[in-house]
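The record is kept unedited without comment:

——
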Amino acid sequence: MARLECDAFVVSETTLGDAISLVSAIVMPTGVPTAVALDPGDPTELGPYRIASRLGRGGMGTVYLAEGPSGPVAIKVINPHFANDPEFRRRFRREVEAARRVRRFCTAPVLDARLDGEPLWIVTEYVAGPDLGRVLRENGPLTGSNIEALAVGVATALTAIHDAGVVHRDLKPGNVLLSPLGPRVIDFGIARALDSEDGQTSTGRILGTPDYIAPEVFTGRQAGPEADIFAWGCVMVAAMTGASPFASKTIEQAFYRVVNETPDLSGVDPSLRPIIAAALEKDPAKRPTAQQLLDALVRRPHADRAEVAGTVRLDLAAITGPTLPGTRIAPRQPEKAPWRRRLMDAAMGAGAALLAVGLVATAVSVGRALASSAPPEGEVLYQENFAQEKTGWPEDGFAGVEAGRNYTGDGRYTMRVDTFEDTKWAKAPVNAVLPDDVLVSVKLDMSKAASWSGVYCNYSKSDQDRDRLFYVLAVNDTGHAKIVRVDADGWRDLTPDVEVPEFQRSNVQLRARCARSGGEMHLQLWAGDELVAEYVDTEAEKAVGKPSLGLYLEAVRGSETRAYYDDFSITRLA
C-alpha cells in the first residue's frame, strides 16, 4: 500500500466502503461531518469521480465524499454565485495552480480540479479524521505527546505551503484534521480566490477567523507567511487550553485584543512557551519562519521535512476517548437499483417496523430507559452545521457565544433564557413542505444549562391559541428525558421524566421522531442510540397544519440558562 507523508491515509488500495467504515468506527463520535445521503439536486458524478455522500456545506461550496480512480477523495464544488463571476474564476484558477505545488508534508494535497465550465470543483485527498476544533469542543484540550505531534505536524505543513509560494490565510483548529499518523492542514490558499487584487475580499471583509488573525492583517496589510505563523501560535494555545489566546465575543473585541494585548500563556506547556511567544509577536518581522519554527521544535537546524513528517503520530484514543457505533453508508449500486433509492427503501423498512412496535403507547418507568432501539435512517432533507451565519435561523442581536439567540461564530447556534422569560424557540428555516414522518437530530451542549432543551414538532392549524398543537421532545441538565404536548389547554407531560443512561451534559446527541397518521401522533426520543421516551397520542385530530420543526429551550429553577446546538438535520422516514 502507498503511504502518504504525515497522515498516511491509504487511498491506492482502499475501497470507498472501507474508507467509510473506518470513519464510522473511529471518527464519527468526535464530530467529523456525518456522511449523509445525497439530495436530489446533488451531483452523482463529477468527471471520473462517483459521488458517494455529502460531508458538509460552507460559505464557498459543498464538500462531497467520492470514489476516484485511486480511492476515496474529497471534492469541494464551488457555489454558483462565485463560479459565475469571471474575476473569481480567474483567481480560482491561479490559486488552484499554486496549491498544486504544495508538497504532501502534513497537508491534504490538491489532486485534481475543474477550472473551466460548470460547476467548478477541486479534489483533495480524503482524510479520515476529526478536525481539531470539534475535538476541543467535545473532548477538551490535547495533552502529552499529542501536543508535540500537533505542533510539529502543523509547522511542517506550513513549510510545505510557504515553499510553494502560498499563504494559508485561515489557519485555525477547524482547518486541522487529526488522524493516527498525524495532523493534516486543509483549505490552504484556495480561499484567496475571494480576494480582489488589493488583498481585500470581494465583499470588503477581512478574510479569516477573528481569534486567529494576525495584527498586521487587522490593521490593513495583506496577509503574508508571517500571518500563518501567528495563527499557528493561536492554534497551539487553543490545543492546550481550549481557546485562542485572543478568544472574543465580537470582531471588535478580537481586533482590540490581537492588536493591543499580550497573550496569557500560563496554560501552555513550559517547553513550548518561548516558541509560541515568538510566533505571537506583534511585529511580523520578529516571528520565526516556518522552517525556523520546525527547527526549534525538533531541536536541530535545517530539519528534513520528509523525515520529520514520517515520524509524526497522534494517539487518537487519548484525544477522542471511547468510540461509539457509527453509520456505514453503502457504496453506490448499479443503475438498476440506484444507491439513494436503496438507502430510502432500507429506511422505510426500518420505519415500518418501528411503527408496528409503536401502535400502542408505551408505559415508561421513571429511572429506566426503554429497550434499546437505534434511530431509523432515511433521506436527509435539511442539514445545518452552523459553520456559516445568515442561513435563515433566528438572529437576536449580535452573533457570538453569549448571544441571546444567534450563531456563535465558532460553528454552533445558541439560545439563552433570561430570568424574566420561561422559554425560547428557534424555527428551522426549511422552505419545503415537510413529510408526515420525520426524524429531527441535533447535538446539544448543556454544560451551562439548568434547563430542558431539545426539539419541537409543530402541527398547529394557525397562530391562534385555540388552533395550536405541537410537541416538545427534550432532555434536562440532570439527565432526564420527556415528551410534552402543548395545545389550547396548556402544557401536558405525555411521559414521566425518564433517566438517560450515561448522560453527558456537554455532548448530547438527540434524535426525535414525529410521525403523523390518521389523527394520531407517534413520538419517539433517542439520546445517543438509546430510545428513552415513546408515546402514541391518539387525540391528535388538531394536528392538521403544515409541519414546522425547530429548537426549544426552557429555564428551570427560576434561573438564567443557555444551551448550544450543532449538526441539526431533518430526515424523511416515509
Notes: Confidence is low (pLDDT under 50) at residues 1-34, 194-206, 322-372. The CA atoms of residues 480 and 499 lie 4 Å apart. The longest strand covers residues 561-572. The chain has two domains: 16-317, 339-572.
